[in-house]
Amino acid sequence: MNITSILRPVFERRYRQIERYATEAEALQRGVLARLIETGCSTEWGHRHHFSNIHSYEQFAAATSITSYDDLKTDIDRMRHGERGILWPDMVRWYAKSSGTTSDKSKFIPVSQQGLKDIHYAGGRDAVVLYLHNNPQSRFFAGRGLILGGSHSPNYNVNHSLVGDLSAILIENINPLVNFIRVPSKKTALLSDFEQKRDRLARESLHRNVTNISGVPSWMLSVLSRVLELSGKESLLDVWPNLEVFFHGGVAFTPYREQYRRIIPGDQMHYEETYNASEGFFGLQSDLSDPALLMMIDYGIFYEFIPLDEIDKEHPTVVPLWGVEPGRNYAMVITTCNGLWRYLIGDTVRFTNTSPYKFVITGRTKFFINAFGEELIVDNAEHGLAEACRQTGAQVLEYTAAPIFMDENGHCRHQWLIEFSQPPADTEAFAEALDKALQRQNSDYEAKRFKNITLQRLQLVTARPGLFNDWLRSKGKLGGQHKVPRLCNNRDIIEQMLALNG
């Protein structure tokens, strides 16, 4: 009996709803906002901003300002101590911990019961909906899913309240029926020691019929490597012959693609990108031949966007989803049923289509290099590295880059620290290929590189094996959703890593 075939009609009904995204985007988004404002009327935030008098997006935009975590921190801290009705009417018991601001080590993003259901679990469901629609021969439910998660801990002394990685919160609250189609056990999935968890994950899943895997590419690769070590096999298909899809997110997949192809050879494996952050579930890859993500617009999230070139203005232009222009970089602003109101999340996107709305993630508002007017973003870096790898046969595992403001010869350049899984035969050739690829990707970088007047060619430093994990371990961030910033406009992180590199 093919369980997947039996369940497929249920998922196809949802797919027909998603098809409305192409023609009803504005109506769907206005409806989401109306429901959020109606619910928010009974909160302190709603009283402060006179939500009872707001009946349209235009009134909402006029009555409220763009917010950052620092703007909401006091309210969130009150909520974490057990107060209700502050940013959201209900008691919020879960807080997703993510990297901090300039004034705090960590951010604690509220995750309401409604947010779990209408945002995060809805995204997980729709990842399967889109995958099954695109793969009619799938036997997805014939086996189990290996789900990689983080860990959590008690939130202050509030009963039944937790703080931790979003993935851990999702596993903790998952429908018990899902446990019959997933590995590992909840106890193993929520271990805080990643090295211990990695070994247990591998051992618990080794002899299961795993058909699908979900997680951050870097950490999942580490787990899969351990599975191969224990099995003595070179291909995962010799361990899990029915493995067919990897739902991945958290970091760009480009640097890891060739490594996954090496351990999962053949054409049966599919890779579907998801955009699930602590703040919400925003996008899914609806067409596996198109890297752009479909923006999920009928969840509990209302979207707005600020043109990236206006992000530092006191009064930047802010447009709703139906006001965006394809090809332009935007910083994303969200209003959600987790109690985030016009919240600037720090991610940047570029739309490739508006019917339906599809986009690519281009970076972070704070992760870029613009020390000399070059405006290098993560999207440029990912494409540049992919091109350099194609030309040299190298494979990149991890990387970070920062400016050198002036070397011993008075020259300025970018410095790249790269950990290779497959080093290039000639590192100078790789550096040259990367530098030229970045110039093709970014006209500002090309202009600054012209005749070496402003910038010299980039400098490549090869990281020793395990350096990036060692740095994360030193910060207590090994495993889960943690990652090293790819681009930094200062040298703080790269100097720490160079010191560890020896």
Could you please describe the fold and organization of this structure?
- The chain is an alpha/beta fold and 502 residues long.
- The chain is built from 16 helices and 21 strands.
- The strands form 4 sheets. A 12-stranded mixed β-sheet has the order 6-3-7-8-9-10-11-16-15-14-12-13, with helices on both faces.
- Helix 1 (3-18) crosses helix 6 (113-134), helix 9 packs across helix 10 (217-231) and helix 15 packs across helix 16 (492-501).
- The protein is globular and about 65 Å long.
- The mean pLDDT is 92.
What's the count of strands? 21
Relative helix content: 25-40%
Please report which band the strand proportion falls in: under 5%, 5-15%, 15-25%, 25-35%, 35-45% or over 45%: 15-25%
Helix-strand category? alpha/beta
Termini separation comes to 58 Å
Please count the helical segments. 16
How do the strands line up in the largest sheet? 6-3-7-8-9-10-11-16-15-14-12-13
Using the CA coordinates, give the radius of gyration. 23 Å
**Spans of at least 5 consecutive residues with low confidence:** none
Q: Look at the structure and give the mean pLDDT.
A: 92
Oligomer: single chain
The general outline is: globular
Specify the biggest β-sheet: 12 strands, mixed
Domain module count? 3
Topology:
Elements: H1 3-18, H2 25-40, H3 44-48, H4 57-63, H5 69-80, E1 94-99, E2 106-111, H6 113-134, E3 144-147, E4 152-154, E5 162-164, H7 166-172, E6 182-183, H8 186-189, H9 194-205, E7 210-215, H10 217-231, E8 245-248, H11 257-263, E9 270-277, E10 280-284, E11 293-295, E12 301-307, E13 319-320, E14 329-336, E15 343-354, E16 357-364, E17 368-369, E18 376-377, H12 378-392, E19 395-404, E20 413-422, H13 427-441, H14 443-449, E21 459-462, H15 467-474, H16 492-501
Parallel strand pairs: 1-5, 3-6, 3-7, 7-8, 8-9, 20-21
Antiparallel strand pairs: 1-2, 4-5, 9-10, 10-11, 11-16, 12-13, 12-14, 14-15, 15-16, 17-18, 19-20
Helix pairs in contact: 1-6, 9-10, 12-13, 13-14, 15-16
